[in-house]
Specification:
about 150 residues, 5 strands, five-stranded mixed sheet
């Protein structure tokens, strides 16, 4: 059993300690907002926060989160009213939407650490996340909007 906090709730999970956190989140805890993309830490679809830092859940093992706090897209805001979530809707960011939970979680880390980022800081910070639909311009605009409205 590995105990950790997810979205402000303490959980104990019975799984192999080397199980990727992504599968613990999706299969054991049934939180399906975190997406499977590449399983190589290259696309960012699986991005979550671990103790406030963005991390690829496909590359993080269950043992690595023991005693830590994990936040998924479901835990970013109880009502879906986080400034980034609202900006994503206002700027019509998603096309297919598959990468968006990871994009939002990565952006949330940026705004938590840099409340008023420059356009260049946004682009640099977000370069770990791929959007196959190519909505990068809208992603940057939504982050800029959220920074102003937060």
């Amino acid at each position: 059993m590995v105990a950790f906090t997810i979205n402000d709730e303490t959980v104990e999970v019975s799984a192999d300690a080397e199980t990727p956190l992504l599968w613990v989140i999706r299969e054991h805890l049934k939180l399906t907002g975190t997406k499977f993309g590449c399983h190589a830490g290259l696309c960012g679809a699986c991005t979550v926060h671990i103790d406030g830092d963005a991390a690829f859940s496909c590359q993080t093992t269950l043992s690595e989160v023991a005693g830590k706090s994990v936040t998924t897209i479901e835990g970013l805001s109880k009502n879906g009213d986080h400034p980034l979530q609202k900006a994503w809707i206002d700027d019509q960011v998603p096309q297919c939407g598959y990468c968006q939970p990871g994009q939002i979680m990565r952006a949330a880390e940026l705004l938590a650490k840099t409340p008023d980022p420059s356009r260049q800081q946004i682009k640099r910070h977000m370069n770990t996340n791929i959007c196959r639909c190519g909505t990068y311009g809208r992603i940057v605009r939504a982050i800029e909007r959220a920074a102003k409205e937060a």
